C-alpha cells in the first residue's frame, strides 16, 4: 500500500515567509489509470418515499443511478435530501456521480487555486481519492456541503455557529436577526447570555434591568416562527448562562416550570404534543439550555461551600448561595424536563488553542463545537467500520491516510465558503475551525468483541480518537507549511502548542488491553510526535480539528449502524426492502462479534436465530454469560448503565478539539441524586459538556403510539368479536322509545344544547345539536352534522373514533365553557365530543384519549388513581395503551407488524413500552436518538443542526 506524502518541501517552516511548495499526494484507495466510477457496479432505482402512517407520497424521483452496494435507505435519503434541481426538470440531478462530482470538483478546483497541491497530478490523485471514499461510504461531509457546494446558492459549508450578545439593546436585536438568518438557512446556533445584566441590577436611567431570561422569550418566539431551512422541523439553538449570573435561578427553572404548565394543559385536554395545536403557547421550547459551571463552583459543591452571584456591570457579589443547593436545583430541573444541561467552563478553556483572542463561552446546539464567539465549524465524519479488516483488526494506517485526505478537503472549503454574517465569516477565515469526527463506534466495538462499557472498549475508542485528532493536526501543520498557518496563530502560538502537548500527554496515559487498541495506540503515539515536531516548525493551519457530532443524516448516507459515539440502539433492527415492504433483521454486527469471540458457525447461527426471536441474548443457546455485555445496547433487555455512557465520553474527550454530542439516557426510576452524580462525575472525568434525559420526563412530544398501533389494536379486537360480514355493515336502529339526556352548554359565549339518545343497553346511538337561530345556516349545518354522526353510530362506527377525530378541532366560537370537566374548548365540536367521551366511554378508553373529569385529574395529581388496574404512567406516555398480554404475544411473533416504521417502533413492540422519541414531522416515522438530537430513519430528517 502506498503512503500519502504530506510534508511540504520548500521554506524552512516559518509560515508566511519564503517560497512554499504544495502538498504531494500518493494513491491509497485508487488505481492509476482507472477512474473510481469504473470500479463499481451501477443500477437504476425508483425512489418513492411515503408517509407510512397515511400512505401519502412525500417525494418521488424515478430512475436514479447509484452503486448496487448502496442500501435502499441511503439511496432514498441522498436522492430526496441532496440532489439539487427541481424534480421533473432536466436540471435535476439523477445520479450519485453528479452529486459527488459537483462537490469534489469544487473542492479540488479551490485547492489548486489556493496552492494546496504541488502539481496538477497531485490534484488529480486527490480528486480520485476523495471520490473513491465518498463512493464507498468511507466518509461524508456534513449536510450543508451537499446542499450548497457547486450550486448557484451561497456556498455555505458549516452547520454549527456560535453567536455573541452584549448588554445593549442594539446587540440584543442583532442577536434576534442573526439567529433568524441562520435558522432560515437550515442551520443552528448557540450563544451565552451572561453579558446581559441581571434583573437585580439597575439601568443607567435608574430603572431595573429586564434580565436575560426575559429576552429569551423573544428569541424563542422567533425560533418557533422560522421553520429551519423552510422545512417543518423547528430551529436548533443553544442558550448558555454562567453559574455566577444573578438570574441563574430563574434560568434554571424556565423549562421545568413550563413543563408543569404543559402537564396542566394536557390534563385540561389541550393538544401539547410536539407540533400540536396548543404547544405554541408554551415558552422556551425551541432551545437547549445549559449552565456554564466554573471549577470554583464545582469545588464549592464538593466541599459544601458558599458561592457568590456576581453583577454583570462591576463584578461585585450580589448575593451568596450554598453551592450544593444551587447544584441540586440544576439536577432537579434536569430530572423534571432534561434541561438545563451542563458545560464545564474550566475544562473547556483549559483546552483552548486561542486563549489570547478570547474565551470560549458557548457551543453550537448539539454541544460538540466550542470555540470563539461569532464563529462556525464545518464537519465531516468517517465510517469506522470501513477500516475493520476481515480478521477483525482495525487498519490504523489506512485510517490515518483517510483522515489526511478528509481534513485537507475540509480546510480547502473555508477558502471558498460563504457565511451568514460578516463577523462569523471573518472569525472562521482567521481561525479555520474544523470538526472531523466519526460514526459507527458502537458497531466497531461490538464487532471486535468489546463491550461498550468496558476498559477494552474505552481503550480502543480512546486510541482511535487520538489517532484521528493527531493525524488531523499533523496534516494541519503540514498545510501550514504549504499555505500558511491560521491568521490568529501568531498571537496564540504558545497556547496552541500547550494544548497540542496536552493531547500528546493524554495519549501517553492510555492503557491498552487488546491487539487492536495496542496497534492503533502505537500508531497514534508516532503521529503525535510528528505533529509536535512539524507544528513547532510550521505552526498549524487550523485552530480546531475534531469534534464528535451526531452524524444523523450523513450516518444514514454511509449506511452506518450506529451514530457518532453512540452504542447500538438494539440488536434487532427494522430494514426497508428494495421491492417494497420491510423486515426485521439481526444487526449484521452480531455475527462478526460472535466470530471475534471464537464461536463456531453453528453456534453463531443458533444465537442469531435466538436474537431474531427474542430480541436479546439472555439465555441464548451456547452463548457464555460473560459475553452478554458485548451485546448490551442503548435500549432493550440489557441496556447500558448511564455511567457507562459517561465513562465512554471521558475516554474520548482528551483527544478532541471540541466536545461530544451525546445525551446520557436515564431510566424513569432515576432519582435527582442520580442526576447530581452524573453531572459531578462529568466534571471529575474531564468532560466539556453533558446532558441527561430521564425517560418520560417530558410531556410535550408524541410517544409510542401512532395510527399503526391503532389499526393493530382494532384488528385484534375484530378477532375477538363475532361480527357480521365486514364488507356489508348492518344498521342497528334505535327503538321507538329510548333513554336520552339533554345538556345545555356555553362555549366562548355561544349557547347551545346537546341531545343524546342511547340504546337500552346504554350505548350511544344518536345526537342532536341545537346551535344558532332556527333557519340559520349554522343551525342547518349542525342538523346535517348530527344526522351524519347518528347514522354512523348506528352502523357501528365506534364513538372513540369520532372523539379522536373531532377533539382539538379549532374554530370559532372557542374559549371558556360553563362545564367544570371541560373548562376550555378549541371549538364547539371539541367540547361536544369531549363531553360525550366523559358521559359514554369507560375510564380506560378515556385515559387513552387523555380525557378526564376534574375529580380524576385531581386524583392523578394527588397520586390517588381511580383504579389499580390502570397504569396511568403508561397512559401518559402513549396515545393508545396495549393490553397486558401484548408484549408476550409479540415475542412469539416472527414477523414484524406491517405498521412498524422504524427500528425504534420495532423495539417498542419488543419491549412492550413506549420510547421517548418524537415522530418525524416530514414522514411520520418514529425517530431514534442521535447524539443529543433525534434522527429519522425514514427520510433522514434530524431535530438538530447537522
From TrEMBL:
InterPro entries: RdRp_reductase_class-2 (IPR050862), RNR_2_N (IPR013678), RNR_lg_C (IPR000788), RNR_NrdJ/NrdZ (IPR013344), TSCPD_dom (IPR024434). It catalyses: a 2'-deoxyribonucleoside 5'-diphosphate + [thioredoxin]-disulfide + H2O = a ribonucleoside 5'-diphosphate + [thioredoxin]-dithiol. Residues 47-137 form the Ribonucleotide reductase class II vitamin B12-dependent N-terminal domain. The keyword Disulfide bond applies. GO terms for biological process: DNA biosynthetic process. It comes from the Bacteria. Residues 158-693 form the Ribonucleotide reductase large subunit C-terminal domain. The keyword Transmembrane helix does not apply. Keywords: Cobalamin, Cobalt, Disulfide bond, DNA synthesis, Nucleotide-binding, Oxidoreductase. Its cofactor is adenosylcob(III)alamin. GO terms for molecular function: cobalamin binding; cobalt ion binding; nucleotide binding; ribonucleoside-diphosphate reductase activity, thioredoxin disulfide as acceptor. Residues 703-723, 879-902 are annotated as: Disordered. Its EC number is 1.17.4.1. PANTHER family: RIBONUCLEOSIDE-DIPHOSPHATE REDUCTASE, VITAMIN B12-DEPENDENT RIBONUCLEOTIDE REDUCTASE. Belongs to the ribonucleoside diphosphate reductase class-2 family. Catalyzes the reduction of ribonucleotides to deoxyribonucleotides. May function to provide a pool of deoxyribonucleotide precursors for DNA repair during oxygen limitation and/or for immediate growth after restoration of oxygen. This is Vitamin B12-dependent ribonucleotide reductase. It comes from Allosaccharopolyspora coralli.
Amino acid at each position: 500500500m502506498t503512503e500519502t506524502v504530506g510534508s511540504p518541501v520548500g521554506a524552512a517552516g516559518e509560515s508566511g515567509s519564503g517560497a512554499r511548495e504544495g502538498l504531494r499526494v500518493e494513491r491509497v484507495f485508487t488505481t492509476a489509470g482507472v477512474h473510481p466510477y469504473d470500479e463499481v457496479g451501477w443500477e437504476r432505482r425508483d425512489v418513492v418515499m411515503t408517509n407510512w402512517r397515511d400512505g401519502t407520497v412525500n417525494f418521488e424521483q424515478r430512475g436514479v443511478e447509484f452503486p448496487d452496494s448502496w442500501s435502499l435507505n441511503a439511496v432514498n435519503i441522498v436522492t430526496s435530501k441532496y440532489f439539487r434541481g427541481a424534480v421533473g426538470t432536466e436540471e435535476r440531478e439523477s445520479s450519485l456521480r453528479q452529486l459527488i462530482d459537483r462537490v469534489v470538483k469544487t473542492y479540488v478546483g479551490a485547492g489548486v487555486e489556493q496552492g494546496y497541491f504541488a502539481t496538477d497530478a497531485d490534484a488529480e490523485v486527490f480528486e480520485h481519492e476523495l471520490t473513491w471514499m465518498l463512493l464507498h461510504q468511507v466518509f461524508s461531509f456534513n449536510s450543508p456541503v451537499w446542499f450548497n457546494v457547486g450550486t448557484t446558492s451561497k456556498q455555505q459549508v458549516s452547520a454549527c455557529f456560535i453567536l455573541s450578545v452584549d448588554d445593549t439593546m442594539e446587540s440584543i436585536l442583532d442577536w434576534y436577526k442573526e439567529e433568524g438568518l441562520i435558522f432560515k438557512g437550515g442551520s443552528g446556533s448557540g450563544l451565552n447570555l451572561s453579558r446581559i445584566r441581571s434583573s437585580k441590577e439597575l439601568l443607567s436611567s435608574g430603572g431595573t434591568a429586564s434580565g436575560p431570561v426575559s429576552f429569551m422569550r423573544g428569541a424563542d418566539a422567533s425560533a418557533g416562527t422560522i421553520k429551519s431551512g423552510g422545512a417543518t422541523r423547528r430551529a436548533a439553538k443553544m442558550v448558555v448562562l454562567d453559574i455566577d449570573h444573578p438570574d441563574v435561578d430563574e434560568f434554571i427553572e424556565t423549562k421545568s416550570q413550563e413543563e408543569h404548565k404543559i402537564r396542566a394543559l394536557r390534563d385540561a385536554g389541550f393538544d401539547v404534543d410536539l407540533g400540536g395545536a396548543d404547544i405554541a403557547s408554551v415558552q422556551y421550547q425551541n432551545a437547549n439550555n445549559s449552565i456554564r459551571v466554573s471549577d470554583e463552583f464545582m469545588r464549592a459543591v464538593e466541599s459544601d461551600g458558599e458561592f457568590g452571584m456576581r453583577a454583570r456591570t462591576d463584578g461585585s457579589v450580589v448575593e451568596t448561595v450554598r453551592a450544593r443547593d444551587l447544584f441540586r436545583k440544576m439536577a432537579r430541573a434536569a430530572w423534571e424536563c432534561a434541561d438545563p444541561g451542563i458545560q464545564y467552563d474550566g475544562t473547556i478553556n483549559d483546552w483552548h488553542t486561542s486563549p489570547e483572542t478570547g474565551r470560549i463561552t458557548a457551543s453550537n446546539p448539539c454541544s460538540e463545537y466550542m470555540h470563539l464567539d461569532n464563529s462556525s465549524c464545518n464537519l465531516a465524519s468517517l465510517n469506522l467500520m470501513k477500516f475493520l479488516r476481515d480478521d477483525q483488526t482495525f487498519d490504523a494506517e489506512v485510517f490515518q491516510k483517510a483522515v489526511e485526505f478528509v481534513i485537507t478537503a475540509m480546510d480547502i472549503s473555508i477558502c471558498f465558503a460563504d457565511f451568514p454574517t460578516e463577523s462569523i465569516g471573518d472569525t472562521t477565515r482567521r481561525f479555520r475551525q474544523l470538526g472531523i469526527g466519526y460514526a459507527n463506534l458502537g458497531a466497531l466495538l461490538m464487532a471486535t468483541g468489546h463491550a461498550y462499557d468496558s476498559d477494552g472498549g474505552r481503550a480502543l475508542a480512546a486510541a482511535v480518537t487520538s489517532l484521528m485528532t493527531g493525524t488531523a493536526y499533523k496534516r494541519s501543520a503540514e498545510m501550514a507549511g504549504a499555505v500558511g498557518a491560521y491568521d490568529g496563530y501568531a498571537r496564540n502560538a504558545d497556547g496552541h502548542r500547550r494544548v497540542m502537548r496536552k493531547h500528546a500527554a493524554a495519549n501517553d496515559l492510555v492503557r491498552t488491553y487488546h491487539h487492536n487498541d495496542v496497534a492503533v495506540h502505537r500508531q497514534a503515539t508516532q503521529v503525535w510526535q510528528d505533529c509536535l515536531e512539524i507544528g513547532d516548525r510550521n505552526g498549524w493551519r487550523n485552530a480546531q480539528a475534531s469534534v464528535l457530532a451526531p452524524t444523523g443524516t450523513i450516518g444514514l448516507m454511509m449506511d452506518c449502524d450506529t451514530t457518532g459515539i453512540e452504542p447500538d440502539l438494539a440488536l434487532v433492527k427494522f430494514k426497508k426492502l428494495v421491492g417494497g415492504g420491510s423486515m426485521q433483521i439481526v444487526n449484521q454486527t452480531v455475527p462478526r462479534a460472535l466470530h471475534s469471540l471464537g464461536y463456531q458457525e453453528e453456534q453463531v447461527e443458533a444465537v442469531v436465530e435466538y436474537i431474531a426471536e427474542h430480541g436479546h441474548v439472555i439465555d441464548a443457546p451456547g452463548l457464555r454469560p460473560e459475553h452478554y455485555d458485548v451485546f448490551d445496547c442503548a435500549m432493550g433487555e440489557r441496556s447500558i448503565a448511564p455511567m457507562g455512557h459517561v465513562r465512554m465520553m471521558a475516554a474520548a474527550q482528551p483527544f478532541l478539539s471540541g466536545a461530544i454530542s451525546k445525551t446520557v439516557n436515564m431510566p424513569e426510576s432515576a432519582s435527582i441524586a442520580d442526576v447530581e452524580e452524573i453531572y459531578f462525575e462529568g466534571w471529575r472525568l474531564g468532560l466539556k459538556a453533558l446532558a441527561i434525559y430521564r425517560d418520560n420526563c417530558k410531556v410535550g412530544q408524541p410517544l409510542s403510539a401512532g395510527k399503526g398501533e391503532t389499526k393493530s389494536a382494532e384488528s385484534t379486537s375484530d378477532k375477538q368479536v363475532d361480527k357480521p360480514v365486514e364488507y356489508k355493515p348492518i344498521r342497528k336502529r334505535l327503538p321507538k322509545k329510548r333513554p336520552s339526556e339533554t345538556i345545555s352548554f356555553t362555549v366562548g359565549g355561544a349557547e347551545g344544547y346537546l341531545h343524546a339518545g342511547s340504546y337500552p343497553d346504554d350505548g350511544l346511538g344518536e345526537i342532536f345539536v341545537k346551535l344558532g337561530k332556527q333557519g340559520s345556516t349554522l343551525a342547518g349545518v349542525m342538523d346535517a352534522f348530527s344526522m351524519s354522526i347518528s347514522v354512523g353510530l348506528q352502523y357501528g362506527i365506534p364513538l372513540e373514533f369520532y372523539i379522536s377525530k373531532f377533539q382539538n378541532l379549532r374554530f370559532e366560537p372557542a374559549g371558556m365553557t360553563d362545564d367544570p370537566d371541560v373548562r376550555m374548548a378549541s371549538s364547539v365540536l371539541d367540547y361536544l365530543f369531549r363531553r360525550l367521551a366523559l358521559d359514554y366511554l369507560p375510564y380506560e378508553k378515556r385515559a387513552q384519549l387523555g380525557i378526564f373529569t376534574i375529580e380524576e385529574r385531581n386524583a392523578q395529581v394527588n397520586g390517588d388513581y381511580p383504579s389499580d388496574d390502570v397504569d396511568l404512567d403508561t397512559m401518559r406516555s402513549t396515545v393508545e395503551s396495549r393490553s397486558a398480554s401484548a408484549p408476550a404475544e409479540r415475542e412469539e411473533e416472527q414477523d414484524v407488524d406491517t405498521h412498524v416504521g422504524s427500528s425504534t417502533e420495532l423495539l417498542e413492540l419488543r419491549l412492550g413500552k413506549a420510547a421517548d422519541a418524537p415522530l418525524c414531522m416530514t414522514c411520520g416515522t418514529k425517530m431514534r436518538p442521535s447524539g443529543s438530537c433525534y434522527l429519522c430513519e425514514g427520510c433522514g430528517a434530524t431535530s438538530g443542526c447537522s
